[in-house]
Amino acid sequence: MSSRSAHFVEHTVSVAAPASAVFGLLTDAPRWPLFLPSYMHVERMEFDGVEEHLWVWELVAGRVRSTRVRRVLRPEDRSVDYEEFAAGETSWPGAVASGTWSVAPEDTARSSLTLRCESSTRTPGELDTDVLLRLDGLRRIAEQWDAFDELLLSFQDTTRIDGPPELVYDFLYRVQDWADLLPHIDAAEVCEERPGVQIAVLETCAAHTGLSVTAQTVRLCFPAAGRIVYKETLPVDLVAAHTGEWSIEPGVSGVTLISTHQVLLRPQAVADVLGPDARLVDARHYVREWFGRDGRAALSLAKWRAESQLSRLR
User: Fold this and answer.
1) Per-residue model confidence (pLDDT) at position 280
2) Which positions fall inside the Coenzyme Q-binding protein COQ10 START domain (predicted)?
3) Strands 7-15 and 255-265
4) Contact 280, 268 (CB under 8 A)
5) What is residue 219's predicted lDDT score, i.e. its pLDDT?
6) What is the pLDDT of residue 250?
7) Whole-angstrom Cα distance, residue 270 to residue 277?
8) CA separation for the pair 304, 283 (Å, rounded)
9) Residues 6 or more apart from 283 whose CB is under 8 A from it?
10) Considering its fold, how many domains does the chain have in total?
């Protein structure tokens, strides 16, 4: 991107992780919502092993902003060039930013991470703050690289529904009605700032403790694809990040509804939540049972409602 009014920022941080591990995080953009707080969802549209095109949704100042991103991965020198373009935002026309991520080894256990960024739509102060936040976020997660096998958790539950996908999707989309339908949800408020982009605040009752928990979630709805992806922006203490997806897969007759979760655990909270003798394996089981129980309740209700409505229509 080139502009006479563009601002340029470059910062470097030292990371207590090997350069290969840091570069691996840079190239794994679809998992950035688990690693960086502002990222809500990343969809990889095209990828040939070197160049990729992404749709990125970020939460900025309380609003969900979408951008198209073109990235070129250069593993030979551990760098990633990128360009960002606004997607459907009249206040962010055209190219909005470009830059380069690069990683250099300091020794076998440490590396330097640099982000160079140029933008004509942000003030120098905003750009400087943004670059520092992104660097710090990746530094913090990269320094846990050797514990990822224990910290990262992915699972799904499914149910078969004898009904049309439209009825199933309608139940998933109308999350504001869930307080009247699901026993673990006490209240639900939804703000849809533009079609398909929901910010939901749910008051839930954790069945295993009886305590009330406030969950704020950004939901991105794709009706043509039968998908709703989401990220919790106020995760519970034991969880550093939680993303998920509801997806509807049509079959020969009826559909399969799938509830998928990706979780990044917060290891420093394990002892406080589960007791001084608890380990990460206990936290993994605890979270799987909790989120799975709530998800299966929603799956069961979606099945009952769709099949009940269909029987009335026949």
Assistant:
1) 95
2) 162-254
3) unpaired
4) no
5) 98
6) 93
7) 9
8) 32
9) 238, 265, 267, 270, 273, 274
10) 2
| Contact assessment for residue 14 and residue 106, using Cβ atoms and an 8 Å cutoff | yes
Query: Do 307 and 169 lie in a common domain?
Result: yes
Closest to 226 in 3D by CA, of 264, 148, 282, 170: 170
Which residue range(s) make up the domain with 120? 7-143
Evaluate whether 4 touches 107 at the Cβ level (below 8 Å): no
Q: Which residue has the tokens 């943004």?
A: 130
* Sequence-ordered list of residues with C-beta below 8 angstroms from that of 28, at least 6 positions apart, any chain: none
Q: What are phi and psi for residue 213, nearest 5 degrees?
A: -130, 130
CATH number, domain with residue 249: 3.30.530.20
Distances (CA, A) of 36 to 2, 189, 209: 27, 25, 29
- Whether residue 225 sits in one domain with residue 255: yes
**CA 221, 223, 224 angle in degrees (round to 5)?**
135
pLDDT of residue 207: 53
- Beta pairing class for 255-265 and 239-250: antiparallel
The 10 Å Cβ neighbour count of residue 197 is 18
Q: What's the CA gap between 249 and 114, in Å, rounded?
A: 42
In contact, 21 and 28? CB cutoff 8 Å: no
Residue 145 to residue 15: CA distance in whole angstroms: 11
